[in-house]
Specification:
homodimer; 204 residues; alpha/beta; Arc Repressor Mutant, subunit A; Rossmann fold; seven-stranded mixed beta sheet; two-stranded antiparallel ribbon; 8 helices; 42% helix; 18% strand; elongated; DNA-binding
Chain lengths: 204, 204
DNA sequence: TGTTGTGAATGACTTCACAGCG
DNA sequence: CGCTGTGAAGTCATTCACAACA
């Protein structure tokens, strides 16, 4: 497990993995850094360099066996297993996330849902029953969850993040439209489509 | 309108804007690069350097008037206006996007929805009626839309992107879990929560 | 005094270019 | 011969550090 790999490299690995899985579905068995790069808009050298942080996965003169490289990437990213995920905030967005089909095929399963609104506690959402926030820490410990999704309004997201960090959560996917600060050792990724839209309009 | 601003800088401007609007709501009137940086996890120098690409927005010894800086950022990002957006793909995700409340407050309104599935054409989704794909180009021209959201399955996303580019769309927010290639002059931003999850698990 | 705006210095990332190997 | 893996070179981004100024 090499240290000092730039985070920007880590961010590209899932993109590579997604492309490899797509090629596999299309019946391909072998690819090259050049072919991958053209598909993804990266240079061939960058792909080779990124992979070189972790080992040697190709054959000179041939390229990469797609299934093998994909499996190696899954190991590197720790997605060669199932991850339980807890969800905080069961409004419209939280409901959509429980129903969202994109997580399970990648090994992420929302196993508990929490909300601070007493009128929501006890309601069923898909196969889950919404629980009170005061059960959060004990449930996280019971499940052994390390990953949480925040889908609350912006106003409560920081408070929720504090609670999650205290309960031992180390990875947060934040859908609340606000930046949050977390203790060292906790990582946050942000999902805010409006932000991406604003990044697009700059160029219009 | 300065040229040659790194895209990575453009990507941070919406984050700054979001934080400024949050501070405004909290009753603040003035902030500093240091205060903003602490809130966002950036260095104060980086924020000042980013802003310096576009002008001088602060007062030495004082900081930035929040409402003024926010308005300047809106101008820079071209979000000081309303943007019509077309949606392609009206499955579960497309439905959720039409209902999603995060776009309209930022000036983005989904004004048309399209699907290639004949059984969906004519159905109502919120206030919209799903239209056939063969109306796409004429509707984009009629509306003057420059922005599109792709919410189709991965298998059709590239084809849809080609059609959108041909119809004059210059900015695409792609929810399909696949990388797409587009002609020069067209920009794409990706929304794939599973990718972000995989980026998080690397560190677990 | 406190904070900005900015060249200069440092650090990080990407590309180059080629040895090495299948 | 073709493609990988990788040091070296080049480019780009961030941080430093301070003059300028309210």
């Amino acid at each position: 497990m090499p240290a000092n790999v730039p985070d920007i490299v880590i961010g590209r690995l899932p993109v590579y993995l997604r492309a490899l899985e797509h090629l596999l579905k299309g019946g391909h068995e072998i690819t090259s850094s050049q072919e991958l790069g053209e598909q993804l808009g990266y240079s061939a050298a960058q792909i080779r360099k990124d992979l070189s942080f972790f080992g040697e996965f190709g054959k000179q003169g041939t390229g990469y066996r797609i299934s093998h490289l994909a499996q190696e990437l899954r190991k590197i990213l720790h997605v060669d297993r199932e991850w339980p995920v807890v969800l905080v905030g069961v409004g419209a967005l939280g409901h959509a996330l429980v129903r969202y089909g994109g997580f399970k095929p990648k090994g992420f399963t929302i196993v508990s849902a929490f909300d601070s609104d007493a009128s929501k506690v006890g309601q069923r959402v898909g196969a889950l029953v919404v629980q009170d926030m005061d059960k959060l820490a004990s449930e996280i410990a019971r499940i052994g969850a390390q990953i949480a999704i925040i889908a609350t309004p912006a106003a409560t997201a920081q408070e929720v993040a504090n609670t999650l960090a205290k309960a031992g959560i180390q990875a947060i996917l934040n859908y609340a439209p606000i930046s949050i600060t977390v203790p060292k050792g906790v990582r946050v990724q942000y999902v805010d489509p409006a932000l991406l839209m604003q990044r697009l309009t700059y160029y219009l």
